[in-house]
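BACKBONE GEOMETRY TOKENS:
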Amino acid sequence: MKAFTPALRVASLLLATLVVPAVHGRVVARLHALTQATVKIEVTGGPVIYIDPTGITTTPADADLILLTHNHGDHQSVAVLNRLRKPSTVFVSSPPGVPALQQNFAGAAIHAVTPGERLTLSGIEIETVAMYNIVKNNHPRAMNFVGYVVNIGGVRVYHAGDTERVPEMRTFSADVALLPLGQTFTMNSVQEAVDAALDVKARIAIPIHWGNAEGTRADAEFFTGQLSSRMQTMINTPPEGLALEVSETIAIAEHPASVTVGPGDNANLSVQATGSGTLRYQWRRYGLALAGATTSGLAIASAAVANEGDYEVILTDANGPITSRIARLVVAPPVRGRLVNLSVRGTSRSAAAPLIVGFVVSGGAKSTLVRGIGPALTAFGVSNALPDPRLELHAVVNGQDSIAASNNDWAAGGAAGLRAAFAATGAFDLADAASRDAAVLASVDGARTVHVVDTAGRSGVALVEVYDADPAGAARLVNLSARNFAGTGDEVFIAGFVISGNMPKRLLIRGLGPRLAGFGVTGALADPKMDLFVSRAGGGSMLFAANDNWAEGTAAPLRAAFAAAGAFDFPDAGSKDAALLATVPAGAFTVQLSGPGGSTGEAMVELYELPD
């Protein structure tokens, strides 16, 4: 999946000194930067991962995952792969490297990936990013070579491959950046690699692709010297490997909240947290440390547009670091917003198991655009889109479920009027009037349920969208709920929403699995993990918040939010359902629900607007 793939997680690793620090927190992995671009990651209690292994002369046969950025001989060596692989080894490669893998490792699990994909293997989240040359011709963009961001327990490791500094680097973040220094085939200068480390907001920068035919130790020393005042750097990883660690003792009771202030007004951000021993603070804007901003509060006097941005605070205690959620500062006359778009991507499995989405309009009747997208998803890289979706809008009338509106082929409902609604609401156009996607314009007051099913009962991925077609009216969208199968790959359960205006809004978001058993649902997702991603102003998205087990923080504020929203309670504080209470900035968001280790099952996503 590509267009619907949320981008990358903000992680929680800070190593601020210039030497390898003592290990205090939980070690999630040890990282070894070996010869050329070879990286080995030994995950604590998990898989052994190699990225671009070459130059290895021993035969450890210990690789669980092997990630290959491209098929050049100094990054993909069949001889070395034979020394590392075992019968269960899984390969991940950009398309040009796949034929050699298929020829030499028949029967092996091989995943072909292009930039912008996301998959989970052996419990490790792997995201692919662009890798190409702009000035040189050695790695054309058209080849779909990839770099990798590997998320290990919240620590994000970026292996850039043989890339130049490309614009996509400013759309994601990483804790550890492994960047090439060779100026013949990769970066145009070492300074480009320095700038790339700043682009991805790295906290640790390690040079690779030097000392072998191109790139020198002097280049590596220049790279680390230029960055040493901004982040942790090292020319080589220590013999025992670089320990990637996170704190398990810091508890953030209140994250910094996004804020909108008028030009010249004062802005204040703050965090409330506890930890082991003395807590230390470092505020950052767009990933770069702010000088002197080392207390629990950040005051910005007479705020100007130049102060706008995404802020976060890194908290460190005796057991390591952790990072708060981002808080977005907007400096402009405040404009209240509302939920103007709700969307859910899931699987309609059969006539008896449609994709079902519920939403609520409060405050009177509202003109609403509702769409059931299937064939149009192929343009976004979805290979198993629902071929012929039929959309039904259900309402309860006199205590009975009834179909209030329906559509099979969207243009049958009047292409001109619907296209005008698409444009007015910001929905992407359906260029083909003969496509079998579905859409209706309907007046809605209260609760409605959308059913999307293939006309022939076939299975496939569909997208349900609900748009506020009257954003100036008093009535408003206040709730979204969707129950569907939470799978893997294209079948990952994803919900999205958009908040208009420029002021933050309080939301309650829940991801249900075990709780569904109380409603008679069988095959529920046993341990849903919920990730909330926010769009970036410059493109792409990043993790805003996440939750695995809802009461792992403090249950009381969440239960109060349940009551305020009219949501049913979670009576078992030990359940593995997920829930988030967050003040979010205006903009576009996606919620992704998944299970650990690729586990699947029935799940539900709920979104509630809370009083300001």
Observations:
- The helical segments are 78-84, 98-104, 190-199, 217-227, 415-425, 555-565.
